[in-house]
Write a structure and sequence with these properties.
Layout lengths: L2 H16 L1 H28 L4 E22 L2 E15 L3 E15 L2 E19 L12 E4 L3 E6 L10 E4 L2 E3 L2 E2 L8 E5 L8 E15 L1 E5 L4 E8 L4 E5 L9 E3 L2 E9 L5 H11 L11 E5 L5 H9 L2 H19 L5 H22 L4 H23 L3 H23 L4 H19 L18
Parallel strand pairs: 1-12, 3-13
Antiparallel strand pairs: 1-2, 1-5, 1-6, 3-4, 4-11, 6-10, 7-8, 7-11, 9-10, 12-17, 13-16, 14-17, 15-16
Length: about 450
């Protein structure tokens, strides 16, 4: 291979590396916008209401154990009444929660956050079979049961809409602020005295409205928990330790429906909650088994922009490779400055995509940015390559590349496979086109013709 060709290839390589600087700057801008989006979510959560975690109800019954203790003092027998205080806590035997979530949007400038209004009705039962026996210090002690408390745990009570309505054994009971369980946040109600050693069924009903940001989580603390959720948001993301039953899921453009059925045999939420209460610690969703729904954006523009940038080197490399092949095959010199300008135009596409996608739908932003860059480069290359047809051919090549990139972006599960096929096809095309090229003769001076 001739010296001039090697020098030209080296210059093209240097230009390719230099173009990584503006591409890296665009990547930093995407990361900055992602950080600002996260800051807006935190700001709205701090100033209004955050992600919501709901658990309950929990029945806490205090008691006092009394027994007589006899002792001898100065040869005289005396008796003293000893009292020990304790609390026993019970979870519902079964609970059924039926709710609907209406989705709204809060804005901070260009950034937006999904908020929800959850309206739910819950009903359940505490069942006592008469076999319960509290732990005693003395076998024949007396137990006096105190005023029981029913607790609802909420991660952010600021999201409450009005006052939740609670019915206990068919009677309305007022809820008060605070969980009455150490540092945990929520609500509680004072109930009539309950003797858990007697056989009985205690039914309850709850009507609650709750505002939250981005996600709703429910801890299944009942023996058998059934949760139904409907929403007008068509793009839910289900998480937590329990997913909805597949046959119950319904999705459409107008929203979704889902149903969970969780048994205490499969969930450790009861034991985890007991440990938290005993330790006096508060809890968010990760510290308990639960089910959750995130009301996500169908198109995360910053995530897609970041993924598109990961393929930027491929765009520039393929375009420069086509230029270089064209130059050596057609013996049409292309100046390094022209390589650099074309590379800058390719980099500008990603900046245009980011800016436009913050104002319009991502696919429209992609179409506009790609069309602008293709038309600009087609016009420029028609002059550089001294042929409108050659400029149009490169425009078709760029159109195919932009189309392939969009396919990679929207097909996240198959992105690696499609990307591998694309690279293989391009390498195969280059090998087929150049299979008869005599690389040693490229750039050599033509032999002098005989006199």
């Amino acid at each position: 291979m001739q010296k001039d060709l090697l020098i030209k290839a080296g210059l093209v390589g240097v230009i390719f590396l230099l173009l990584q600087i503006p591409l890296g700057m665009i990547g930093s801008l995407v990361a900055e916008r992602q950080g600002r989006q996260a800051a807006v979510v935190k700001e709205i959560s701090t100033g209004n209401y955050g992600k919501q975690v709901f658990a309950g109800p929990i029945l806490s019954i205090p008691y006092v154990e009394e027994y007589e203790q006899t002792y001898t003092f100065e040869k005289e027998k005396k008796s003293e009444t000893i009292r020990h205080k304790g609390v026993v806590r019970f979870f519902p035997e079964s609970e059924d929660i039926d709710g609907k979530a209406a989705i709204g949007t809060k804005y901070r400038g260009l950034f937006k956050v999904r908020v929800f209004n959850w309206q739910a009705k819950a009903k359940g039962v505490f069942h006592f079979d008469g076999k319960f026996a509290p732990d005693r210090v003395r076998a024949n002690s007396r137990i006096a049961w105190g005023q029981p408390t029913l607790t609802l745990l909420l991660s952010d009570p600021r999201g409450l809409i009005g006052s939740p309505a609670l019915e206990w054994k068919g009677l309305r009971v007022e809820l008060e602020r605070g969980s009455a369980l150490g540092n945990s946040s929520g609500l509680h109600a004072i109930l009539p005295v309950v003797d858990p050693t007697k056989s009985q069924r205690l039914e309850y009903a709850l009507d609650i409205g709750l505002l939250g940001t981005e996600s709703l989580s429910i801890a299944p603390i009942a023996g058998n928990e059934t949760v139904r959720l409907a929403s007008d948001w068509p793009h839910p993301s289900f998480g937590g330790q329990f997913l909805p039953r597949p046959e119950s899921q319904r999705r459409s453009a107008s929203g979704f429906e889902a149903q969970w059925a969780v048994s205490a045999l499969a969930s450790g939420a009861q034991q985890q909650l007991r440990s938290l209460i005993e330790a006096g610690r508060d809890c968010d969703a990760p510290c308990m088994d639960g089910l959750s729904v995130q009301f996500i954006e169908p198109v995360a523009i910053y995530t897609l922009s970041d993924r598109a940038l990961k393929y930027a080197f491929l765009f520039v490399g393929i375009t420069f490779g086509c230029f270089f092949l064209f130059e050596i095959l057609k013996r049409l010199p292309i100046h390094p400055a022209q390589y650099f300008l074309v590379g800058l135009a390719l980099a500008t596409f990603f900046l245009l995509l980011l800016g436009l996608s913050e104002h319009i739908a991502f696919w429209i932003a992609y179409l506009v940015a790609a069309a602008a860059c293709i038309l600009l480069q087609g016009f420029y290359l028609g002059t550089v390559l001294r042929s409108a047809w050659r400029g149009a051919s490169f425009s078709l090549l760029l159109t195919a590349l932009y189309g392939a990139l969009y396919g990679l972006l929207i097909s996240e599960d198959n992105a690696l496979l499609l990307g591998s096929i694309l690279v293989f096809a391009l390498v195969a095309a280059a090998m087929v086109i150049t299979r008869k090229v005599d690389w040693y003769s490229l750039g050599a001076s033509p032999a002098p013709s005989p006199a």
